[in-house]
Design a protein that fits this description.
The chain is α/β, with parallel strands linked by helices. It has four domains: 77 residues, Orthogonal Bundle (434 Repressor (Amino-terminal Domain)), CATH 1.10.260.40; 117 residues, P-loop containing nucleotide triphosphate hydrolases (Rossmann fold); 84 residues; 101 residues, Arc Repressor Mutant, subunit A. 54% of the residues lie in helices and 9% in strands. Strands 2-3-4-1-5 form a five-stranded parallel β-sheet, sandwiched between helices. Strands 6-7 form a two-stranded antiparallel ribbon.
């Protein structure tokens, strides 16, 4: 007697008996053909009740057979819940971003994706949401936060506790302070287990086969929506008319669309109002958050300092010297203002690439070249470090000399030697 071992086996048997193709069953049930294929192949083993009912109705099976389908699906759902560590609970509503759907699709094709981006851009929240939406495609969804670890030797042992024989999605959060150790452990895990890894880090792991997904800042519309939602969380009497929305969008642009900065700014609304928040941002307001946030996220300064503390000495020197640029700049400009007896042009090229890799500097392709730019909060932090170093006057003098040389060449009709002229403060 046939005894199906899984929901997919039984679904295939019922579909074949009904004389239906996967395409026909998909059309009748309102599912996609890909969804039916995934269920029958076991890529999705624990469909929701409403999905099971839609398939049973489309197959026109007796109620006893519909119950059998639901029993197998329910058994799979219980197995998954029993074996997986719960994803972190989020206390605030999620503002959807197009990156989520893109990452869900990419995870069907790749076994290792690393979400990178500057501190506060939303890597952890996006990773959790992606994992939730992907849950039905895996037997186990597990979560490992490396933030509490300071000893790289512990990464491998922590990873071993996440080794499942079933098809697993493992989210590894906060890898940037233990990149090399995490990379070695991930390679080992992917080699011996049917695991897909979604990692978050301020820099890539540098593993063969890794897909690096640099999470961008929020677009103005999404950023403004986040600001309004968080403002309403702290003050239910606050409403957003056209004038307030326009000012909220201006504030979000000033904050470069960084979700953490937007949430921290919105939390000051009851005290300062929109006018006050905007005015204080212009004066360099130190954004602060509550005790529910990790220490490194309670201020934007702490978030940036976490990345800065992970830099080497040469990277720190380049980082702070580049703060003299108020807008986009080129490699040639960076070399002119940063080079000295301790840093050659080649050194600056190497360190510039590392700053981009570690999400402290943005790089944009312009025609056949590349322009670099800080987000405002990071530039302000770098500027403070420059002032503390005692180098500020010397570096600004180099910048002034460069600008004067470029202006002289322009007046003489000579193209500047160092690519395009940057916009500077």
């Amino acid at each position: 007697m046939f005894e199906p071992s899984s929901f997919g086996d039984l679904l295939r048997r019922y579909r074949t008996a009904a004389g239906l193709s996967q395409e026909a069953l998909a059309e009748r049930s309102g599912l996609s053909e890909g969804a039916v294929q995934s269920l029958e192949q076991g890529l999705r083993r624990a469909p929701y009740r409403h999905t099971v009912r839609a398939l049973a109705d489309a197959l026109n099976v007796p109620e006893s057979q519909a119950i059998k389908l639901e029993e197998l699906a329910a058994r799979a759902r219980l197995r998954r819940r029993a074996t997986q560590a719960p994803l972190p609970t989020t206390l605030t509503s999620f503002v959807d971003r197009s990156d989520v759907d893109e990452l869900v699709a990419l995870l069907r094709e790749r076994r290792l994706i690393t979400l990178t981006g500057c501190g506060g851009v939303g890597k952890t929240r996006i990773a959790i949401e992606v994992a939730r939406r992907c849950a039905n495609y895996y037997d186990v969804v597990d979560f490992l936060d490396l933030l509490p670890l300071r000893d790289g030797a512990l990464v491998q042992s922590r990873m071993l506790t996440r080794m499942h024989s079933q098809r697993t999605l493992l989210v590894i959060d906060n890898c940037e302070h233990l990149v090399s150790e995490t990379a070695a452990a991930v390679v080992h895990l992917l080699t011996i287990r049917p695991t897909t890894v979604l990692a978050t880090s301020r820099e890539p792991l540098g593993v063969a086969g890794e897909l690096t997904y640099r999470l961008p800042s929020m677009d103005p519309e999404t950023a403004t929506k986040l600001f309004v939602m968080r403002a309403r969380d702290v003050d239910r009497s606050w409403t957003a008319d056209g004038t307030r929305l326009a000012m909220a969008e201006e504030i979000c642009r000033k904050l470069d669309g960084i979700p953490l900065a937007i949430e921290l700014a919105a939390s000051r609304l009851p005290t300062l109002g929109l006018d006050g928040v905007r005015a204080q941002l212009a004066e360099g307001l130190v954004l602060t958050g509550g005790p529910d946030l990790p220490l490194r996220h309670r201020t934007m300064r702490a978030t940036i300092a976490w990345s800065y503390d992970l830099l080497g000495d040469r990277e720190r020197r380049i980082f702070r010297r580049l703060s003299v640029f108020g807008g986009a700049f080129t490699l040639g400009a960076a070399q002119e203002v940063s080079e000295d007896e301790t840093l050659s042009s080649a050194d600056i090229l190497e360190q510039l690439a590392l700053l981009v890799q570690k999400s402290l500097l943005n790089a944009t392709h312009v025609d056949t070249g590349t322009h670099y730019r800080f987000i405002d909060a990071i530039r302000a932090f770098a500027g403070e470090r420059l002032a503390e170093s005692g180098e500020r006057d010397r570096v600004f003098a180099k910048l002034a000399a460069r600008r004067e040389r470029c202006a002289t060449q322009t007046r003489a009709g000579i193209a500047p030697l160092s690519h395009s002229r940057p916009r500077v403060a």
